[in-house]
Amino acid sequence: MRFKPSFFMQDALAVAEALLGHFLVRRIGNRRIVTKIVETEAYCGVEDKGCHTFGGRRTERTEAMFLPGGHAYIYMIYGMNFCLNVVSAGKDDPQAVLIRAVEPLEGIDFIKENRKGIVKDTDLTNGPGKLAKALLIDKTLNGCDLVRGKELFIEQNLQLPDFTIVSAPRVNIDYAGEFKDKPWRKYIAGSKFVSKP
DNA sequence: TCTACGATTTACT
DNA sequence: GTAAATCGTAGAA
To answer: Has this prediction a pTM greater than 0.90?
Structure first.
């Protein structure tokens, strides 16, 4: 079952926590990958020094973050990896949630083809660049609709179990000054599939 | 135009 | 533990 668009209109911090335990689905032709979101990071917009849109920066790269909540913001990092973000809050309020790690549920064979050489199941999708590669996510999906989309979308887990949410500082944003220690990384306690336990 | 560097991964010591 | 890989983008010139 899909979320209502209004689910993504909350601020990034709320969406980062609310997405945990729900499903990220990728469809390519008749192949299908289903994963569970286990780790996220909130990037809180113009106020947040760690965010690409800090100070209202609006460039070609960050344009997708200005879309209404529920769209995808995908960018290349270090010349070799892509990162998937879920745009949050309203139009022209450029916040986003970075999907840092997911747990493969369905289509693991397909994921293994995309992640050649990786043997351990827990190493397939435990990092933003890794999961992008595993789900064949690249810039062609930038700006796509994760609420109504067909190739890449988010589904509600109607049997969401109880779990504890751990808050921790975000990763690799040493340049963010006083924002670098904010506990805006969120993950499911005890999950074997998070990037940094 | 030109330059520096990053919301990372991987391999190697 | 450290470092290389690798290139689009932001910001400066």
So the answer is: yes
Q: In A12-143, where do the E strands start and end?
A: 23-28, 31-43, 72-77, 81-88, 95-106
Note the Cα A135 to chain centre separation in Å. Answer: 12
- Our measurement of CA A2 to C1' C3, in angstroms, reads 44
Domains of chain A: 5-188 (3.10.300.10)
Closest-approach nucleotide to residue A76, Cα vs C1': C8
Please give the DSSP secondary-structure letter assigned to residue A170: P
Q: What is the pLDDT of residues A108-126, one digit of tens each?
A: 999 999 999 898 999 999 9
Q: How far is the CA of A26 from the C1' of B1 (A)?
A: 40
Q: For residue A29, how many other CB atoms are within 10 A of its CB?
A: 6
In the three-class reduction of DSSP (H, G, I as helix; E, B as strand; rest coil), residue A185 is classed as strand
Look up residue A163 and give its DSSP letter: -
Nucleotides of C under 7 A from a protein CB: 5-11
- How many Å does it take to go from CA A147 to C1' C2? 42
Task: Give chain B positions with protein CB within 7 A.
Answer: 6-11
pLDDT digit string (tens) for A158-189? 999 999 999 999 999 999 999 999 999 999 99
Q: How many residues does chain A have?
A: 197
C-alpha A37/C-alpha A135 separation (Å) is 13
